[in-house]
Amino acid sequence: VISLQRGIPSTDLIPVAQLAAAASRAVERDPSGALLYGDAAGYAPLREWFARRLGVDPARVVLTNGSLQGLSLLSEHLSTAGRHVIVEAPTYDFALRILGRATPELSLVPVREDGLDLTDLERLLRSRGPSVLYTIPTFHNPTGTTLPEAKRRDLLDLARRWDLTIVEDDPYRLLFIDGEPPPTLLSSDGDERVIHLTSLTKTVAPGLRCGAMVLPSALVDDIVDAASGTYISPGQLAQATAMAYIESGAFEPVIERSRAALHERRDAAIAALANTLDVSWSVPAGGYFLWLRLGREEARELGARAARAGVGVLPGDAFFADRSSNGHLRIAFCAAPAEAVRQGVSRLAELIRRAGPRSQAERGRPRSRTRD
Ligand SMILES: Cc1ncc(COP(=O)(O)O)c(C=O)c1O
After folding, report:
1. Cα 302 from Cα 326, distance rounded (Å)
2. For the chain, counts of helices (H) and of strands (E)
3. Is the pTM for the entire model greater than 0.70?
């Protein structure tokens, strides 16, 4: 089976030997830091490293067991603060599960070819009052889109005008394929409206469970208190290992290798779709995902047929809070080497071709492949 379902790097992209060496170094040089309970906000040297990279005061950085745990702590806090929660349609399915648990009603704003629809967002903000927006502006999961710089400025303007808190989930930024993405929302945030989430999951290894969030100063104590009341302190061994790994100098070269591999895998997926009518996509400039718009509302059925043909892809409905679409499939091209991606997507393309083109009557307007 060629599994292109989840956004997990294939094992060949994980620096196994360097991590083993880093774990052993971490334990030997700092046994109490790595092996006892620690600060609920995380291992201090790693907090400082994230703070330097993100250009913020380390006091605003809280490390968690993966960035999703940060989102979970935040969502409990924000729901008790009575803020309305807005998510993108579509958006990351696990984030939806977390936010949906904490909030009875999520409002949806569509994602277009150039990211979040700001006109729709403003309409919602007018009617809803103080809100929180969960957004993935860079190499979006699942659509692969990136919010252009001008729209980032407009989004921050809206946030100031309508008292909006923005949760910027940004785990893919360093995995660019076609050049560096626009700067983070956090970097243009003058008044601490942006909460920034990032992670070592995509750049080092998911199993480390190392996530980081940058909080508004006023929120730090509450979130750290919730963290300490939940797990005392996050995984010190993982964080000390991550720090030793970063100090070994492997971080950048390994990401460089991942970028090259993702480039090959993305292009293999797109090449395998050539001559497949009735499906369109935008070429993602980085990250892990290719998002297919099907000519027919049959993504779940096609996903099941693909599974029987030995290819795992994810029907898109899981990424819509209202489960409203059956017309999209997500291909996680990160998850296998290029040749396997090519084979898997070729089998999928064959199934799409066999389903046949839509009839003339169904065909409202011609579909075309689009490039951002
Ligand atoms: C947008 C987004 N946020 C967060 C995560 C998970 O991050 P972590 O492993 O740090 O919890 C993922 C993984 O797929 C993701 O796509």
Report:
1. 10
2. 12, 14
3. yes
